[in-house]
Amino acid sequence: GQNIDQPTEMTATEGAIVQINCTYQTSGFNGLFWYQQHAGEAPTFLSYNVLDGLEEKGRFSSFLSRSKGYSYLLLKELQMKDSASYLCAVSDSNYQLIWGAGTKLIIKP
Amino acid sequence: ETGVTQTPRHLVMGMTNKKSLKCEQHLGHNAMYWYKQSAKKPLELMFVYNFKEQTENNSVPSRFSPECPNSSHLFLHLHTLQPEDSALYLCASSSQGQSSYNEQFFGPGTRLTVL
Fold first, then answer.
1. How many CB pairs below 8 A link A and B?
2. Given this model, what pLDDT does residue B100 score?
3. For the residues A32-55, what does the mean pLDDT come to?
4. Looking at the complex, does the CB of residue A62 fall below 8 Å from at least one CB of chain B?
């Protein structure tokens, strides 16, 4: 079956760095997405990785290792507004997104 | 209006009611999706439409009936729902349903409560 695993909840301190991991087992792979979802709001796109390596975009970076079925989202210089759920999703062989349950990130002052 | 809009934002209905959720996208996309989001569970893909044609129906009960009259509008008709159908229903759209880069843009969702 297809499976996406990510931690349910993480806590970090304002100004610090946090890494949210995602492991996947899917039928085919056509890229991995990270989305951010604030409570009561729509998920919004953060990043897309299809090749191995690190993609940096401001305070957020995303890493992919296809051989290990592994990705992480790195958030630097955490701000209170980064408190949200972070969703990992893999595009499978049919180009459909398979979603993880999301990681709720709590930022403490 | 820009992006993806959904109405209503909140809906409370009884098990015998019939209601419809509406989604509209102003992004010129050709693919539209319905998802169900329950607490602490992954997003569940319900239906996919590509160029107005339904391409996916992930074993969704018949009490949920989608309709896509054109590439910009998507409806989800609801009838005789169960309390376990209470969830956030998200609509999304993307350009090219069959593409390695398939960024989906989401609407704000309809919070549905079935009594």
1. 52
2. 60
3. 94
4. no
- pLDDT at A107 exceeding the cut of 90: yes
Q: Residue A96: pLDDT band by 50, 70, 90 thresholds?
A: confident
Q: Is B98 on the interface with A (CB under 8 A)?
A: yes
Q: Does B75 touch chain A (CB under 8 A)?
A: no
Q: What pLDDT does residue B99 have?
A: 59
The token pair at B109 is 């969702």
Q: Is the CA virtual torsion A47, B56, B46, A94 positive or negative?
A: negative
Q: What does the angle CA A12 – CA A16 – CA A20 come to, to the nearest 5 degrees?
A: 55
Q: What is the DSSP string of B23-74?
A: EEE-S--SEEEEEEE-TTS--EEEEEEETTEEEEE-S--TTEEEEEEETTEE
